[in-house]
Amino acid sequence: MKDIIEHKEHHLHLDNILSEGTKNGLPKIVLAGNPNVGKSLFFNYLSGTYVDVSNFPGTTVSITKALYKNSEVYDTPGVYGVSSFNDEEKVARDIILEADIVINIVNALHLERDLFLTLQLIDMGKKISVFLNFNDELKKRKILIDPKKLSELLGVPVYEASAVKKMGFEKLDEAIADAKVGIQPDALHHVLHETLNRVGSQAEALLIIEGDEIIAERHSVPCGSGDEREIIYIERRNRVNEIVSTVEREDSSRGLFFNALGKYSLNPVTGIPILLVMLTVLYFFIGDFVSQRVVNFTEKTIGKKYFEYYLKSYVANYTPSEISVIIKDEEDPAKRLRVYSFKENLNEDQKVKQEFKHVSRDENAVVDFKFSNLIAKLLFGEFGIISMTITYLLFLLLPLVAAFYFAMALMEDSGYLPRLATMLDRMMNRIGLNGRAVIPIMLGFGCVTMATITTRLLGSEREKTIATAILMYVIPCSAQLAVIAVLLSGAGFLPILIYVSVIFSTLVVISTTLNKFLPGQSTPLLIDLPIMRLPKLDNAFKKTFFRTYGFMKEASVWFFVGALFVGLLDVTGLLVLFQDILAPITTHWLKLPKEAATAFVMGVVRRDFGAAGLFGLHLMPMQITVALITITLFVPCIAAFIIMIKERGMKEGLIIWFSAWIFAFLIGGIVAQIII
Amino acid sequence: MGSKTLDKIKKGTYFTIEKLPSGIVKVQLIRLGLSEGDTIFCLERLPGGTIIVQKNRQEIAIGFELAKLISVRIKII
Ligand SMILES: Nc1nc2c(ncn2[C@@H]2O[C@H](COP(=O)(O)OP(=O)(O)O)[C@@H](O)[C@H]2O)c(=O)[nH]1
Ligand SMILES: [Mg+2]
User: Fold this and answer.
1) Which of A288, A371, A450, B64 is 20–30 Å from A241 (CA)?
2) Is residue A535 assigned to a domain?
3) What is the rounded distance in angstroms from the CA atom of residue A583 to the CA atom of residue A580?
């Protein structure tokens, strides 16, 4: 998360980085290529650091920079050509313009598509080397490409590579040293001549002729017309097709299992069952296995029984406490509840202490510590900054967030997501989006903040607004989802059904309304489908590790801030005051205990933190349903709010934020009136 | 055979692109490898009209609204 925000900063201050780079005079090596060709794997190798490797377009919306030997290396968002049709392209364009050497990664399975960019880079007069990646898949499919011949035709070095197998990386030094300006068509100079004289850089002259208004403006020269661009593009397309037909030969096109799966996942008859199977597996993995079994063990046993128990009884050695022990024992009701009161500390009466120790270690004991000292209460009490936060973070959130990212990583890597986008395209059209919006929305289930940034890959402002609104109102992030999953799966089938249908209908109503009233037009789907294949486990693990780590690092801070905030409200009595003020709404309208208001206060800081506040309340199943609906529709966390303001502007951001308050209480209340 | 628009093409047919809509979308299509005169295969037609076409090994999904703007001619092989 934080990294992404940082990348965004890079993006915003790209000019700064660029001029900085020139100042220190290090040569700039830029990795460029279409989406999903393996740029990030090359970058990881060169930089020795990690950037996300994904099998769906739009993951690298930002620039990452690293040092390699005596130069700077840049990873770029994948683009099909250098131009300014969207934000990703603008980012990539600027960095490519500044490049001294471009390492062009090409997916050898899709030469026809990828060489278009290659030829454009050559026409720009850049020094380049080409890597034909995906060599392993090429062999599997018995496709032959002649790299020597290709190198001759392009006039630049061409190497074979298979980034996942770490093959071809050893050629990088040579590729950097030998990068060349390729063979340009004779007619090009004639076309560029005049503009070139005025702007002095062939790359920029080409982009201006191709109709890039921004570059034209920078040099205050007239920009090329759409017709000129079309002529150049068609000519370039023809050159690509010619080259491909010369260098490539296919021996057989035997069907591969995963090819077939790719096909079936698109056919409606088989695609919908495949989707349902995926969702079911996902449910059993995250909803049942992790959020019930694993979390039960980590949270209840490790967290509450060991960690909090030992921590708090240690603290009780030094400060007054009142400890209640509840033993769930059907046969002997008399044994059920005991309260131990230590006026000084645990050691004032060794006998009582021994008895307490003995009783509280019973297998069925639930131990509750109350500290009267304010500091002790703030740090170790019910909302203790240390006790509660650590249990939630490590023993509840961590397993769930990791499970979510792991499932997501497998889906991304398999190439399933773009097919899902295609399958759902028509449905998304109804709410003013196209299938591509599936990606930010799915990511939203991981982290709404991160997902809000990726709404940039959508084609128009209205689509960005609709997707952002959906993310802010209805999509619970993985942390919140974690709490929701645990509470809901404990509540039973009907609550799950009600919760899902209410949230889903809200989504439909809000987005169709926006679609109806927002001006402008949404863009239709146009997306290329990567090959379907078995996800690489090591990549999935690595990705899970880094994303979970990043998320936890970012989330932890807010958790502690939130706990401190609520803790202070608690010890100063403001929490009760707030609860009293909200009481009419909480108790009459939402039909929840008035303490549930705490969850809303905390929810402003972090969504999941709000949901977590519902844990200790002992709610009935239907109350859980209402509380969760309200908290899901409630405002996003502070981080998401800030990013939303940055992406969508102050006015739109505030409208969305305040209306979330209204929706949450309105819809939550209506549901409460009906079901409780 | 007369010309049609892409949204009317049946699954499993080969067709030639006659005219792409002008503007940025045309340029995007050309970059992905679809240009006027190309012969393309219709791999799938989803309910609602999203079309998946295949050119060589590249599969490309095209939304209904865009498909309506692409004129094609069915090819008889
Ligand atoms: N089979 C195979 N898969 C590859 C190869 N290179 C990259 N990939 C996969 O292609 C996807 C995209 O890789 P990534 O580095 O994120 O590409 P980027 O979008 O260009 O940065 C990932 O799922 C990689 O595992 C390769 O040589 N062979
Ligand atoms: Mg990448």
Assistant:
1) B64
2) yes
3) 5
Q: Is the pLDDT of residue A581 over 70?
A: yes
Q: What does the mean pLDDT of chain A come to?
A: 84
pLDDT, position A512 = 94
The Cβ-side half-sphere exposure at A637, using a 13 Å CA radius, reads 28
Nearest CA in chain B to A143: B57
CB proximity A137 to B under 8 Å:
no
Q: Do A426 and B58 touch (CB under 8 A)?
A: no
Judge if A346 and A275 occupy the same domain. Answer: yes
Residues A339 and A408 in one domain: no
Q: Report the nearest-CA residue for atom 4 of ligand 1.
A: A164
Say if the Cβ atoms of B24 and A116 lie within 8 Å.
Answer: no
Q: Which of A197, A194, A131 is nearest to A158 (CA)?
A: A131
pLDDT in tens, A194-219: 888 888 899 999 999 998 989 999 89
The domain in which residue A21 lies consists of 2-184
* Cβ atoms < 10 Å from Cβ of A326: 15
Q: What is the pLDDT of residue A390?
A: 87
What does residue A569 show for φ and ψ, rounded to 5 degrees?
-55, -40
A379 and A403 in a single domain? The answer is no
Give tens-digit pLDDT for B32-53. Answer: 989 999 999 998 898 888 999 9
Is the pTM for the entire model greater than 0.90?
Answer: no
Contact: A528, B58; criterion CB under 8 Å: yes
Higher-pLDDT residue of A609, B10: B10
Claim to verify: residue A486 and residue A346 sit in the same structural domain: no
Q: Is residue A486 domain-shared with residue A460, that is, in the same domain? A: yes
Q: Whose CA is nearest to atom 28 of ligand 1?
A: A134
In the chain, the amino acid numbered A309 is Y
Q: Which of A19-28, B12-21, B66-75 has the lowest mean pLDDT?
A: A19-28
- How many whole angstroms separate alpha carbon A610 and alpha carbon A257? 45
**Where among A389, A423, A449 does a domain terminate?**
A389
CA distance to A404, A533, A543, per residue, from A538 (Å): 16, 14, 8
Q: How far apart are the CA of A292 and the nearest CA of chain B, in angstroms? A: 37
Which residue matches tokens 């298979």? A162
**A230 shares contact with chain B (CB less than 8 Å):** yes
Among A423, A426, A527, the residue with its CB nearest the CB of B49 is: A426
DSSP for residue A59: S
Instruction: Count the domains in chain A.
Output: 3
Based on the fold, state whether residues A146 and A178 are members of the same structural domain.
yes
Give distance in angstroms: CA of A110 to centre of ligand 1: 13
Lowest mean pLDDT among A13-27, A301-315, B4-18, B19-33: A13-27
CB A452 within 8 Å of CB A488: no
SS3 content of chain B, % helix, strand, coil (to 5): 20, 40, 40
- Does the residue A239 lie in any domain? no
Pocket of ligand 1 (CB under 6 A): A 33, 35-41, 53-55, 60, 78, 133-134, 136-137, 162-164, 413, 536, 539
* A242 vs B: CB within 8 A: no
List, for residues A2-21, the tens digit of each pLDDT value. 333 333 333 333 333 343 44
CA distance A136 to A167: 9
Which residue matches tokens 């790209």? Answer: A14
Element (H, E) at A299: none
Collect residues with CB below 5 Å from ion ligand 2.
A 40, 60
- In this structure, chain A runs to a length of 676
| Residue A41 alpha carbon, nearest atom of ligand 1 | 15
- Report angle CA A230, A232, A234 to the nearest 5 degrees: 65
Shared-domain flag, residues A453 and A381:
no
pLDDT in tens, A348-388: 888 888 888 888 888 778 888 888 888 888 888 877 788 87
